[in-house]
Write a structure and sequence with these properties.
CATH class: Mainly Alpha
Bound molecules: fe (ii) ion
CATH architecture: Orthogonal Bundle
Number of helices: 12
CATH topology: Ribonucleotide Reductase, subunit A
Number of strands: 0
Strand content: under 5%
Order of helices and strands: HHHHHHHHHHHH
Shape: globular
Number of domains: 1
Radius of gyration: 20 Å
Largest sheet: none
Structural class: mainly alpha
Length: 315
Protein backbone atom coordinates (compact mmCIF):
# COMPACT_ATOMS: atom_id res chain seq x y z
CA UNK A 1 0.00 0.00 0.00
CA UNK A 2 1.19 3.52 -0.44
CA UNK A 3 1.27 6.55 -2.64
CA UNK A 4 1.51 6.71 -6.37
CA UNK A 5 -1.56 4.62 -7.14
CA UNK A 6 -2.02 6.57 -10.31
CA UNK A 7 1.58 6.10 -11.31
CA UNK A 8 2.48 9.75 -10.87
CA UNK A 9 -0.19 10.96 -13.27
CA UNK A 10 -1.76 14.27 -12.46
CA UNK A 11 -5.30 13.05 -12.19
CA UNK A 12 -6.80 16.03 -10.45
CA UNK A 13 -5.53 19.39 -11.47
CA UNK A 14 -5.57 18.99 -15.21
CA UNK A 15 -8.90 17.23 -15.37
CA UNK A 16 -12.43 18.16 -14.51
CA UNK A 17 -13.14 16.72 -11.04
CA UNK A 18 -15.92 14.50 -12.37
CA UNK A 19 -13.32 12.85 -14.61
CA UNK A 20 -11.06 11.75 -11.74
CA UNK A 21 -10.54 7.98 -12.05
CA UNK A 22 -12.52 6.09 -9.47
CA UNK A 23 -10.41 2.93 -9.30
CA UNK A 24 -8.73 3.81 -5.97
CA UNK A 25 -11.81 5.36 -4.42
CA UNK A 26 -13.71 3.28 -1.93
CA UNK A 27 -17.49 3.32 -2.00
CA UNK A 28 -18.71 5.59 0.78
CA UNK A 29 -21.37 4.07 2.99
CA UNK A 30 -22.86 5.41 6.16
CA UNK A 31 -22.86 2.45 8.54
CA UNK A 32 -25.51 3.84 10.88
CA UNK A 33 -23.47 2.80 13.95
CA UNK A 34 -25.26 3.63 17.21
CA UNK A 35 -23.40 2.21 20.14
CA UNK A 36 -21.08 4.75 21.72
CA UNK A 37 -20.65 3.78 25.37
CA UNK A 38 -22.36 6.13 27.82
CA UNK A 39 -20.03 5.16 30.67
CA UNK A 40 -16.27 4.68 30.83
CA UNK A 41 -15.27 1.30 32.18
CA UNK A 42 -12.40 3.14 33.83
CA UNK A 43 -11.40 6.80 33.94
CA UNK A 44 -8.21 6.23 31.93
CA UNK A 45 -9.77 3.87 29.45
CA UNK A 46 -6.73 3.63 27.13
CA UNK A 47 -4.48 1.09 28.91
CA UNK A 48 -4.92 3.09 32.16
CA UNK A 49 -2.62 5.66 30.54
CA UNK A 50 -3.77 9.20 31.40
CA UNK A 51 -1.88 10.78 28.49
CA UNK A 52 -3.11 8.40 25.80
CA UNK A 53 -6.62 8.71 27.23
CA UNK A 54 -6.42 12.52 27.23
CA UNK A 55 -5.56 12.47 23.50
CA UNK A 56 -8.70 10.58 22.53
CA UNK A 57 -10.90 12.41 25.05
CA UNK A 58 -9.72 15.81 23.79
CA UNK A 59 -10.58 14.82 20.23
CA UNK A 60 -13.98 13.44 21.18
CA UNK A 61 -14.84 16.62 23.09
CA UNK A 62 -14.50 18.75 19.96
CA UNK A 63 -15.89 16.34 17.37
CA UNK A 64 -19.60 17.26 17.68
CA UNK A 65 -19.11 20.97 16.92
CA UNK A 66 -16.15 20.43 14.62
CA UNK A 67 -17.96 17.91 12.46
CA UNK A 68 -21.13 20.01 12.42
CA UNK A 69 -18.99 22.85 11.03
CA UNK A 70 -17.71 20.56 8.29
CA UNK A 71 -21.23 19.43 7.40
CA UNK A 72 -22.37 23.06 7.19
CA UNK A 73 -19.39 23.89 5.01
CA UNK A 74 -20.32 21.16 2.52
CA UNK A 75 -24.10 21.73 2.41
CA UNK A 76 -23.94 24.83 0.11
CA UNK A 77 -22.06 22.74 -2.46
CA UNK A 78 -24.45 19.79 -2.66
CA UNK A 79 -26.55 21.47 -5.35
CA UNK A 80 -23.58 23.14 -7.08
CA UNK A 81 -21.36 20.15 -7.76
CA UNK A 82 -21.96 17.94 -10.82
CA UNK A 83 -24.64 15.32 -10.26
CA UNK A 84 -21.98 12.58 -10.43
CA UNK A 85 -20.30 13.97 -7.30
CA UNK A 86 -23.48 14.52 -5.30
CA UNK A 87 -23.87 11.00 -3.82
CA UNK A 88 -20.37 11.19 -2.30
CA UNK A 89 -21.00 14.61 -0.79
CA UNK A 90 -24.30 13.41 0.67
CA UNK A 91 -22.61 10.27 2.04
CA UNK A 92 -19.90 12.47 3.59
CA UNK A 93 -22.58 14.56 5.33
CA UNK A 94 -24.40 11.46 6.54
CA UNK A 95 -21.19 9.92 7.91
CA UNK A 96 -20.12 13.09 9.74
CA UNK A 97 -23.62 13.51 11.22
CA UNK A 98 -23.29 9.97 12.63
CA UNK A 99 -19.85 10.74 14.09
CA UNK A 100 -21.10 13.92 15.69
CA UNK A 101 -24.07 12.08 17.24
CA UNK A 102 -21.97 9.22 18.63
CA UNK A 103 -19.30 11.52 20.07
CA UNK A 104 -22.04 13.44 21.88
CA UNK A 105 -22.81 10.07 23.50
CA UNK A 106 -19.15 9.39 24.29
CA UNK A 107 -18.79 12.90 25.70
CA UNK A 108 -21.63 12.12 28.10
CA UNK A 109 -19.50 9.25 29.38
CA UNK A 110 -16.66 11.72 30.00
CA UNK A 111 -19.01 14.05 31.88
CA UNK A 112 -20.37 11.07 33.84
CA UNK A 113 -16.77 10.23 34.79
CA UNK A 114 -16.41 13.74 36.27
CA UNK A 115 -14.66 15.57 33.42
CA UNK A 116 -15.67 19.14 32.63
CA UNK A 117 -15.41 19.38 28.85
CA UNK A 118 -16.87 22.90 28.69
CA UNK A 119 -13.42 24.56 28.31
CA UNK A 120 -12.71 22.37 25.25
CA UNK A 121 -16.16 23.04 23.91
CA UNK A 122 -15.55 26.79 24.17
CA UNK A 123 -12.38 26.46 22.08
CA UNK A 124 -14.09 24.65 19.23
CA UNK A 125 -17.05 27.05 19.36
CA UNK A 126 -14.58 29.97 19.07
CA UNK A 127 -12.96 28.27 16.06
CA UNK A 128 -16.35 27.77 14.39
CA UNK A 129 -17.58 31.30 15.15
CA UNK A 130 -14.36 32.70 13.62
CA UNK A 131 -15.72 31.44 10.28
CA UNK A 132 -19.30 32.57 10.86
CA UNK A 133 -19.30 35.40 8.35
CA UNK A 134 -16.74 33.86 6.03
CA UNK A 135 -17.55 32.99 2.42
CA UNK A 136 -18.52 29.48 1.34
CA UNK A 137 -15.11 28.95 -0.28
CA UNK A 138 -13.25 29.95 2.90
CA UNK A 139 -15.29 27.50 4.99
CA UNK A 140 -14.82 24.80 2.37
CA UNK A 141 -11.05 25.33 2.26
CA UNK A 142 -10.80 25.11 6.06
CA UNK A 143 -12.90 21.94 6.02
CA UNK A 144 -10.80 20.40 3.26
CA UNK A 145 -7.66 21.00 5.36
CA UNK A 146 -9.22 19.64 8.57
CA UNK A 147 -10.31 16.58 6.62
CA UNK A 148 -6.67 15.90 5.74
CA UNK A 149 -5.93 15.95 9.46
CA UNK A 150 -8.74 13.61 10.41
CA UNK A 151 -7.84 11.27 7.52
CA UNK A 152 -4.16 10.93 8.42
CA UNK A 153 -4.90 10.43 12.12
CA UNK A 154 -7.60 7.87 11.25
CA UNK A 155 -5.24 6.02 8.89
CA UNK A 156 -2.58 5.95 11.61
CA UNK A 157 -5.09 4.44 14.08
CA UNK A 158 -6.01 1.76 11.54
CA UNK A 159 -2.43 1.07 10.49
CA UNK A 160 -0.84 1.02 13.92
CA UNK A 161 -3.06 -0.84 16.33
CA UNK A 162 -0.76 -0.12 19.29
CA UNK A 163 -2.60 3.17 19.78
CA UNK A 164 -5.89 1.47 20.64
CA UNK A 165 -4.40 -1.70 22.12
CA UNK A 166 -5.97 -2.72 25.42
CA UNK A 167 -9.12 -0.70 24.81
CA UNK A 168 -12.44 -2.41 25.56
CA UNK A 169 -14.60 -3.49 22.63
CA UNK A 170 -17.20 -0.72 23.00
CA UNK A 171 -14.62 2.05 22.73
CA UNK A 172 -12.60 0.18 20.11
CA UNK A 173 -15.71 -0.20 17.98
CA UNK A 174 -16.51 3.52 18.19
CA UNK A 175 -13.01 4.62 17.23
CA UNK A 176 -12.47 1.98 14.53
CA UNK A 177 -15.83 2.83 12.97
CA UNK A 178 -15.02 6.53 12.97
CA UNK A 179 -11.53 5.91 11.58
CA UNK A 180 -12.83 3.66 8.78
CA UNK A 181 -15.35 6.26 7.66
CA UNK A 182 -12.83 9.13 7.88
CA UNK A 183 -10.41 7.26 5.62
CA UNK A 184 -13.26 6.24 3.34
CA UNK A 185 -14.40 9.83 2.70
CA UNK A 186 -10.95 11.43 2.91
CA UNK A 187 -11.01 12.96 -0.58
CA UNK A 188 -14.61 14.18 -0.77
CA UNK A 189 -14.06 17.71 0.60
CA UNK A 190 -10.91 17.96 -1.55
CA UNK A 191 -12.88 16.98 -4.67
CA UNK A 192 -15.53 19.59 -3.89
CA UNK A 193 -12.77 22.15 -3.36
CA UNK A 194 -11.15 21.23 -6.70
CA UNK A 195 -14.55 21.78 -8.32
CA UNK A 196 -15.13 25.06 -6.44
CA UNK A 197 -11.74 26.44 -7.51
CA UNK A 198 -11.74 25.07 -11.05
CA UNK A 199 -11.36 28.55 -12.53
CA UNK A 200 -8.40 29.47 -10.32
CA UNK A 201 -4.80 29.30 -11.46
CA UNK A 202 -2.70 26.44 -10.07
CA UNK A 203 -0.57 29.00 -8.19
CA UNK A 204 -3.59 30.54 -6.50
CA UNK A 205 -4.93 27.15 -5.53
CA UNK A 206 -1.61 26.07 -4.11
CA UNK A 207 -1.13 29.32 -2.17
CA UNK A 208 -4.62 29.10 -0.67
CA UNK A 209 -4.47 25.52 0.43
CA UNK A 210 -0.93 25.85 1.82
CA UNK A 211 -1.83 28.95 3.78
CA UNK A 212 -4.99 27.39 5.16
CA UNK A 213 -3.17 24.20 6.07
CA UNK A 214 -0.60 26.12 8.10
CA UNK A 215 -3.36 28.07 9.86
CA UNK A 216 -5.44 24.95 10.56
CA UNK A 217 -2.35 23.06 11.76
CA UNK A 218 -1.39 25.83 14.16
CA UNK A 219 -4.92 26.01 15.55
CA UNK A 220 -5.23 22.22 15.77
CA UNK A 221 -1.88 21.76 17.47
CA UNK A 222 -2.36 24.55 20.03
CA UNK A 223 -6.00 23.85 20.85
CA UNK A 224 -5.81 20.06 20.98
CA UNK A 225 -2.66 20.26 23.14
CA UNK A 226 -4.35 22.71 25.50
CA UNK A 227 -7.44 20.50 25.49
CA UNK A 228 -5.38 17.51 26.65
CA UNK A 229 -3.60 19.64 29.23
CA UNK A 230 -6.96 20.86 30.60
CA UNK A 231 -8.25 17.28 30.98
CA UNK A 232 -4.98 16.26 32.63
CA UNK A 233 -5.27 19.25 34.98
CA UNK A 234 -8.63 17.81 35.99
CA UNK A 235 -6.80 14.53 36.65
CA UNK A 236 -4.52 16.41 39.05
CA UNK A 237 -1.45 16.96 36.83
CA UNK A 238 0.31 20.32 36.70
CA UNK A 239 0.27 22.49 33.58
CA UNK A 240 3.96 22.21 32.72
CA UNK A 241 4.19 18.50 33.50
CA UNK A 242 1.16 17.87 31.28
CA UNK A 243 2.55 19.91 28.37
CA UNK A 244 5.80 17.97 28.57
CA UNK A 245 4.03 14.59 28.71
CA UNK A 246 1.55 15.43 25.95
CA UNK A 247 4.36 16.47 23.59
CA UNK A 248 6.38 13.39 24.56
CA UNK A 249 3.41 11.04 24.03
CA UNK A 250 2.53 12.64 20.70
CA UNK A 251 5.96 13.18 19.19
CA UNK A 252 8.16 10.60 20.91
CA UNK A 253 8.92 7.31 19.17
CA UNK A 254 5.69 5.70 17.97
CA UNK A 255 3.61 8.76 18.86
CA UNK A 256 0.64 9.63 16.66
CA UNK A 257 1.86 13.18 15.99
CA UNK A 258 5.28 11.91 14.96
CA UNK A 259 3.88 9.18 12.73
CA UNK A 260 1.55 11.51 10.84
CA UNK A 261 4.22 14.13 10.09
CA UNK A 262 5.05 12.61 6.71
CA UNK A 263 1.45 12.17 5.53
CA UNK A 264 0.75 15.70 6.80
CA UNK A 265 3.65 17.07 4.73
CA UNK A 266 2.43 15.20 1.63
CA UNK A 267 -0.36 17.77 1.44
CA UNK A 268 2.21 20.30 0.24
CA UNK A 269 3.09 18.35 -2.87
CA UNK A 270 1.80 20.50 -5.74
CA UNK A 271 -0.11 17.55 -7.21
CA UNK A 272 -1.35 16.13 -3.92
CA UNK A 273 -4.77 14.51 -3.83
CA UNK A 274 -6.08 12.37 -0.94
CA UNK A 275 -7.19 9.58 -3.29
CA UNK A 276 -3.59 9.15 -4.54
CA UNK A 277 -2.93 6.87 -1.56
CA UNK A 278 -5.01 3.74 -1.95
CA UNK A 279 -6.41 2.95 1.50
CA UNK A 280 -8.97 0.34 0.48
CA UNK A 281 -7.06 -2.49 2.17
CA UNK A 282 -6.83 -0.45 5.37
CA UNK A 283 -10.58 0.13 5.26
CA UNK A 284 -11.22 -3.58 4.66
CA UNK A 285 -9.01 -4.50 7.64
CA UNK A 286 -10.87 -2.03 9.84
CA UNK A 287 -14.20 -3.43 8.69
CA UNK A 288 -13.02 -6.99 9.38
CA UNK A 289 -12.12 -5.97 12.94
CA UNK A 290 -15.51 -4.31 13.37
CA UNK A 291 -17.16 -7.53 12.17
CA UNK A 292 -15.07 -9.51 14.66
CA UNK A 293 -16.27 -7.28 17.51
CA UNK A 294 -19.87 -7.68 16.33
CA UNK A 295 -19.43 -11.45 16.11
CA UNK A 296 -17.93 -11.59 19.61
CA UNK A 297 -20.85 -9.60 20.92
CA UNK A 298 -23.23 -12.04 19.23
CA UNK A 299 -21.54 -14.85 21.12
CA UNK A 300 -19.28 -16.30 18.44
CA UNK A 301 -15.51 -16.50 18.58
CA UNK A 302 -14.01 -15.51 15.22
CA UNK A 303 -12.29 -18.85 14.70
CA UNK A 304 -15.49 -20.85 15.06
CA UNK A 305 -16.91 -22.45 11.91
CA UNK A 306 -20.21 -20.62 12.33
CA UNK A 307 -18.52 -17.24 11.69
CA UNK A 308 -20.46 -16.48 8.50
CA UNK A 309 -23.73 -17.15 10.31
CA UNK A 310 -22.59 -15.02 13.22
CA UNK A 311 -21.66 -12.08 11.06
CA UNK A 312 -25.02 -12.30 9.30
CA UNK A 313 -26.84 -12.42 12.63
CA UNK A 314 -24.88 -9.45 13.94
CA UNK A 315 -25.40 -7.30 10.84
FE1 LIG B 1 -15.91 12.30 11.42
FE1 LIG C 1 -14.36 13.55 7.96
Amino acid sequence: MGGGYFGGMDVTHNMAPEAVPTNARPGIVSRGFRAAPDALNERHWVRQDPYATAFFNALSAVFPHGETFMIRSLIPWVERVPASMRPEVEAFIEQEAGHSREHVAMNKSLINAGYDIAPLDRKIRAFVSFFEDASDIVKLTATMCIEHFTAIIAAELLENRDHLAGVDDDMLELWLWHAVEEVEHKGVAFDVWVFATKDWSLARRYAWRSLFMFAVTTSFFINRTLGQVELLRQDGYSFFWSIKQVIKAGFGKGGIGRNVLRPWASFFRPKFHPWDKDDRLLIAQGEADLATIAAKRAGFAPHEPGIAKALKAAA
